[in-house]
Design a protein that fits this description.
Family: Belongs to the LysR transcriptional regulatory family.
Domain HTH lysR-type: 2-59
InterPro entries: LysR_HTH_N (IPR000847), LysR_subst-bd (IPR005119), WH-like_DNA-bd_sf (IPR036388), WH_DNA-bd_sf (IPR036390)
CATH topology of the largest domain: D-Maltodextrin-Binding Protein, domain 2
Number of strands: 10
Shape: elongated
Strand content: 15-25%
Order of helices and strands: HHHEEHEHEHEEHEHEHEHEHH
Helix content: 40-55%
Distance between the termini: 68 Å
Keywords: Activator, DNA-binding, Transcription, Transcription regulation
CATH architecture of the largest domain: 3-Layer(aba) Sandwich
Strand order of the largest sheet: 4-3-5-10-6-9
Protein name: Transcriptional regulator, LysR family
Radius of gyration: 26 Å
Length: 319
């Protein structure tokens, strides 16, 4: 078993750059430090330092060990701080990873209920690629991942995907751009400039299949991993863009864009991924319950309609 005192001595020497400086900081003799690091290397069966004259240099293995030691002692400091906090001033911490593909507005709406609990919640959000966030979840650096898909097949993370809801997609364009495309829906998209989600977004493949099934060939002018950046380019008139229908009116108002049409045959799904089969964290329970009761239960009529009828859709949502 790893001796954490020896690991701390190794970490201190690596940070100080020499055994002498580390011994002064730790109030230990250089001989004690050298002996303890030697025992650690013997236990691990690897060399952590190269001794070049009076200098010490980390080996490749030593650099790897140092990166892990940094995390170990950072977490230790966080634990000490948490345990020393007064109970009456302590808040529930919720560490959430948000997949790049999840629109910021959807993430905000999903997370807001966690901030409305009777007990104070300290929310810590990180945004990254889903694969990297799942690794963080597996080593318990975060409590929850918000994503547009369940845990991908072949991912070596044993977690649970809790579906929060789904909805169709809506197409938007800057008003002057929209005025140039007046054909019936969805033929209006044929040859039109289009901004699409990046390859890692779950909606990307269903969207392209939908175009193919209708023999629609848009002119793709941009691909974006970040939905907010895609909307910014769309607002500037670079091309037509999509967003989940559940936030269609919000996108229209905030960006001053025109709604061209929608489809429910292509859907965006949203998941809360956790290490728990049954959700128990009070903030996560609030997120899950509100998503089912409110966010995805109160969709506009046009984003709930069971079929795509071009004439009806045009009348109900074109501005």
């Amino acid at each position: 078993m790893l001796n954490y005192k020896q690991l701390h001595y190794f970490w201190a020497v690596a940070k100080a750059g020499s055994i002498v400086r580390a011994s002064e900081r730790l109030h230990l003799t250089p001989q004690t430090l050298s002996g303890q690091i030697g025992l650690l290397e013997e236990t691990l069966g690897v060399a952590l330092f190269l001794r070049i004259g009076r200098r010490l240099e980390l080996t490749e293995t030593g650099r790897l060990a140092l990166s892990y030691a940094d995390e170990v002692f950072q977490i230790g400091n966080e634990l000490e701080e948490a345990l020393r906090s007064r109970p009456e001033s302590r808040s529930i911490q919720l560490r959430v990873g948000v997949d790049d593909a999840v629109p910021k507005s959807i993430a905000y709406r999903l997370l807001t209920p966690a901030m409305s609990l009777a007990e104070p919640v300290r929310l810590v959000c990180r945004e990254d690629k889903l694969v990297r966030l799942l690794v963080e979840l597996a080593i318990q650096r975060i409590d929850l991942v918000l994503a547009d898909q369940p845990i991908p097949a072949g991912t070596h993370v044993k977690g649970f995907s809790h579906k929060l809801g789904d909805c169709g997609i809506t197409f938007f364009a800057e008003p002057r751009l929209a005025a140039q495309y007046t054909d019936k829906w969805p033929l209006v998209l044929n040859s039109a400039p289009l901004l699409i989600p990046g390859k890692e977004a779950a909606v990307r493949i269903p969207l392209m299949r939908w175009f193919e099934a209708r023999q629609i060939r848009p002119h793709i002018v941009g691909e974006f991993d970040d939905s907010a950046l895609m909307q910014a380019f769309g607002q500037a008139g670079t091309g037509i863009f999509i967003a989940p229908s559940v936030i269609a009116e919000e996108v229209r108002r905030e960006h001053g864009v025109t709604i061209l049409g929608h489809t429910n045959e292509v859907t965006e799904q949203f998941y809360a991924i956790s290490m728990e089969r049954r959700l128990t964290h009070p903030a996560v329970v609030a997120i899950n319950d509100t998503a089912h009761r409110e966010l995805f239960a109160n969709l506009d009529t046009y984003s709930r309609s069971p079929a795509e009828t071009p004439t009806r859709v045009t009348r109900s949502i074109k501005r």
